[in-house]
Amino acid sequence: MALKPEDDSGIAKSLRDVAPYLGLGLQLAVTIVAFVLIGSWLDKKFSQNYIFTLIAGLFGIGIALYNLIRTVTYLEKRSKLKNEKK
User: Fold this and answer.
1) Under 8 Å CB-to-CB from 55, ≥6 apart: which residues?
2) pTM of the predicted protein model
3) Residue 49 to residue 52: CA distance in whole angstroms
4) 55 near 76, Cβ under 8 Å?
5) What is the pLDDT of residues 66-81, one digit of tens each?
6) How confident is the model over 39-68, as a mean pLDDT?
7) Dihedral sign, CA of 44, 47, 53, 55?
């Protein structure tokens, strides 16, 4: 007899609840590293000493944190609406 989604164990439900959050750390890191690499490339192109790397890195951190906060807020709203419907 196959289990229905309502019959899932507590572990399966927990994994389903936490799944949207699992990629956020990777997304944060990739954004920051990408901006640091762009800054490094600009430093080499314009023969500067880490100024573009610093600026792009800080910009990347800001964008990554903004995106993290926006995503978590959206996921929390969605979770709250889902719980209210039950």
Assistant:
1) 39
2) 0.78
3) 8
4) no
5) 999 999 999 999 888 8
6) 96
7) negative
